[in-house]
Amino acid sequence: MSKSLAFVATAISTRFRVPLPQIQYRFYCSSPSHPSSNKLFVGGLSWSVDEKSLKDAFSSFGDVTEVRIVYDKDSGRSRGFGFVIFSNEDDAKCAKEAMDGKALLGRPLRINIALEKARGVPVVVPRLSDIGHLNRR
């Protein structure tokens, strides 16, 4: 894939007589608009939802291999979100499309493809003061 992109860049450079910079470029395929996974993040859960009721709500879309609700360490109360893991990625996508925004025990669900947690890797979030064009008046 990168050879064909390099060929296109060279052809454009030759056609318009623009020299190519002397920098090595790497071409990466862009990731899909949404990450692919069989794990769903389910937010907006009612405090009365338990693992069994969550599994029952999603099992009609395919084989649910694991359901986990996140609980507060101190109070033991649900934090209002959890994860549903399917054995098949297509089943997870179907469940996401069908259940996102639907009510479960009186509360609308917010469903996304779950991102893998990166342990030990710092997350850098730019401050507004670091963005130069926003500071100019």
TrEMBL record:
Query: What InterPro entries does this protein's entry cite?
Result: Nucleotide-bd_a/b_plait_sf, RBD_domain_sf, RRM2_NsCP33-like, RRM_dom, SLIRP/GR-RBP-like
CDD domains from the UniProt entry: RRM2_NsCP33_like (cd21608)
In this chain the RRM domain maps to 38-116
Gene3D superfamilies per the record?
3.30.70.330
**Molecular function terms in GO for this entry?**
RNA binding
Q: Is Zinc among the key words of this record?
A: no
Record keywords, A-Z = RNA-binding
Q: Name one Pfam family in it.
A: RRM_1
Question: Which PROSITE patterns is this protein grouped with?
Answer: RRM
- Is Oxidoreductase among the key words of this record? no
Q: Mind telling me which PANTHER family this protein's record contains?
A: HETEROGENEOUS NUCLEAR RIBONUCLEOPROTEIN 87F-RELATED
Q: What is this protein called?
A: RRM domain-containing protein
Q: To which species is this protein native? A: Vigna angularis var. angularis
Classification lineage: Eukaryota, Viridiplantae, Streptophyta, Embryophyta, Tracheophyta
